[in-house]
Amino acid sequence: MTVAGVLMSTTADILADRTGLGEAIVGGILLGISTSLSGVVTSITAAADGNASLAVSNAVGGIAAQTFFLAVADLFYRKVNLEHAAASPTNLLLLALLIGMLSLPLTAALVPPVALFAVHPVTPLLVAAYLAGLVVTKRARDEPMWQPQRTRETKEDTPDDESFRGPSTATLFVRFAVLAAALGVAGWGIAKTGAVIAEGAGISQSVVGALFTAVVTSLPELITTVAAVRRGAVTLAVGGIIGGNTFDVLFLVGADVAYRDGSIFHATASRDLFLLAWAILMAATLLLGLLRRERVGPAGIGFESNALIAIYAAGVAVQVLMR
Is pLDDT of 20 > 70? Predict the structure, then answer.
């Protein structure tokens, strides 16, 4: 996973320049989706095996873990607060989309049970919201209605001459697809292992999903994010996490379809609903940081990174106590 993550980050950075789509779009869609493949396979496999809580907690716990990883990446970017340097209306739109999408399964779990062919109506709505959000995001890049104020520390998303040398664009896409497929295969094994751990150790599936499988399947995001930051591709790094998180909500779509005992949203425990609220809180905190754009805060990182570390640690503690 480590090697694949570094190679994917480098390849995505080059493709962002060659295709002209920019780091935010490529990071939010191509890189974000690809690094999430192990996680989606894990959730679908768990749901197909009847492990509803493991499927949901893996998906939502991964979103919380990956948001926390941005605070970790901030520690590696010492020039200025990472969210200040990576100012992008595309990332803001994707983050707002993420918060909206996370609210849908939370709502579905709290209303009376309803399902058609064992699938909740919210499931196709999540797909529609995601696709509509991508269209809006693409339009915002092509015809922006506003731009963040440029400062001396803002990292411009401009093509690098080095990106147009070396292998052809087609070769790069093939390389990227092979690396992504490798991550997908790993997800199947992680789901099976997580279920065995939960049963053998007597730990709830929610804890295993949120703190074990979610973190393991999210390691590619951590690796690609830190690698992108070290390359100076900060917009790619932030976009990869936010875009990946937005796509991760669709894990629940696959899980709901794969779970055949009714809607998966009504087969979850209260601790799974806590995970949804936890992820929404972390996403909202990150959104505030991207809007505030603090240059340097406590410990040399922005207030949002400090807050994300505290919120994630508190959430982990709550999960352990609820087990």
Answer: no
CA 281 → CA 67, 96, 121, 129, 287, distances in Å?
A: 11, 12, 25, 20, 10
User: Tell me, what amino acid is at 32?
Assistant: G
Neighbours of 107 (CB within 10 A): 12
Integer-rounded Cα radius of gyration of the chain:
19
**Rounded to whole angstroms, how far apart are CA atoms 55 and 218?**
14
> C-alpha angle 126/135/276, rounded to 5°?
30
- Annotate 158-213 with DSSP letters as a single string: ---GGGGSSS-HHHHHHHHHHHHHHHHHHHHHHHHHHHHHHHHHT--HHHHIIIII
Cα 90–chain centre separation: 15
Whole-model pTM over 0.85: no
Task: Give me 215's structure tokens.
Answer: 């973190």
* Domain at 2-147+167-322, CATH class: mainly alpha
Question: DSSP letters along 61-115, please?
Answer: HHHHHHHHHHHHHHHH--SS-HHHHT--HHHHHHHHHHHHHHHHHHHHHHSPP--
Measure the CA–CA gap between 74 and 64, rounded to whole angstroms: 16
**CA–CA dist 266, 111 (Å, integer):** 9
User: What letter does residue 31 receive in the DSSP assignment?
Assistant: I
**Which pLDDT does position 28 carry in this prediction?**
55
CA–CA dist 33, 286 (Å, integer): 20
**So where are the chain's domains?**
2-147+167-322
